[in-house]
From TrEMBL:
Coiled coil: none annotated. Gene3D superfamilies: 1.10.20.140, P-loop containing nucleotide triphosphate hydrolases (3.40.50.300). ATP binds at G13, P14, T15, A16, I17, G18, K19, T20. The lineage of its organism: Bacteria, Pseudomonadati, Bacteroidota, Flavobacteriia, Flavobacteriales. Its EC number is 2.5.1.75. InterPro entries: Dimethylallyltransferase (IPR039657), IPT (IPR018022), P-loop_NTPase (IPR027417). This is tRNA dimethylallyltransferase. Belongs to the IPP transferase family. Monomer. It comes from Olleya namhaensis.
Length: 304
């Protein structure tokens, strides 16, 4: 494939590390637009609990895939990949550089590398696993995955029953680890991806997360979740920041306990994000306090 002069600058890192601020700086510097690869920020009904960019931030640079869907619409990573690639193609006609930002590893990889292809497996497997989840709980499924595919056990969102069941379904149906189908023949991309990772020491990340959750509460997270009560069974709402408040609203938990759980679950999420993003050996990691100018000059060097 000939050398391309089109670039996608992908900004990754754990939640609350400062990706949004950096993406806006870079978009303004390169006079370009931003594609969001944060799977929770697609939904217009969820803005406080997903820490979506604020109105002010959205005004500073043009964003795509923020609040563009409703929680009632079926949307998945395959659909996102198609839409994002179409969007990129059109943006690359007028800009050599486009910025992508987001903490959803699977969605980031779908755009930069393409999705993995999995074998067809027996349709009866998934209902059996769903039944097992109902009767025996998630932990037995997690342990089963740990035995069949330790790699996936350590890298997927292990607290997400859908992800665990999907991985197990492939392991059982194909007789091969789910992870063995990852990163096979990907679609070649007509652009080059440069990945910038933001990181900090764990105590700093955790402190930033705890503070961010407190800000969400001050900004009215409980009221936001109240409006979503009729939809609480939807998969998109089975997520950190929402499921905990549902437990408070139905009097299962106190508000203080719910907030502490959001903080704890967000910290766990950040840990998994780092595990996922650290797998890419080509990522250029910067401390979250690195001056934006330093990052820009590094990017200039690579592009030119």
């Amino acid at each position: 494939m000939k050398h391309t002069n089109k670039y996608l600058i992908s900004i990754v890192g754990p939640t609350a590390i400062g990706k949004t601020a950096l993406s806006i700086k870079l978009a303004n510097y390169f006079n370009t637009e931003i594609i969001s690869a944060d799977s929770r920020q697609f939904f217009k009904e969820m803005s406080i609990g997903t820490a979506a960019p604020t109105t002010e931030e959205l005004a500073q640079a043009k964003h795509h895939f923020i609040h563009n869907k409703s929680i009632t619409e079926a949307y998945n990573v395959g659909a996102f990949e198609k839409e994002a690639i179409t969007c990129l193609k059109s943006l690359h006609q007028s800009n050599d550089v486009v910025i992508m930002v987001g903490g959803s590893g699977l969605y980031v990889d779908a755009v930069s590398k393409g999705l993995d292809y999995f074998p067809e497996v027996d349709k009866a497997i998934r209902p059996q696993l769903n039944k097992q989840l109902e009767t025996e709980g998630l932990e037995t499924l997690q342990l089963q995955l740990k035995t069949l595919d330790p790699t996936s056990y350590n890298t997927i969102a292990i607290d997400n029953p859908q992800r665990v069941i999907r991985a197990l379904e492939i392991c059982i149906g194909s007789g091969q680890p789910y992870s063995s189908f990852l990163n096979k023949d990907k679609n070649k991309r007509p652009f080059k991806t440069i990945t910038i990772g933001l990181e900090a020491d764990r105590p700093i990340i955790y402190d930033r997360i705890n503070k961010r959750v407190n800000i969400m509460m001050d900004n009215g997270l409980v009221d936001e979740v109240k409006t979503l009560l009729p939809f609480k069974e939807l998969n998109s709402l089975n997520t950190v920041g929402y499921k905990e408040i549902f437990n408070y609203l139905d009097n299962t938990w106190t508000l203080d306990f719910a907030v502490a759980e959001i903080q704890k679950n967000s910290r766990r999420f950040a840990k998994r994000q780092l595990t996922w993003f650290k797998r890419n050996p080509e990522t250029l990691w910067f401390d979250y306090l690195t001056p934006k100018e330093t990052i820009i000059s590094k990017l200039e060097t690579i592009i030119n």
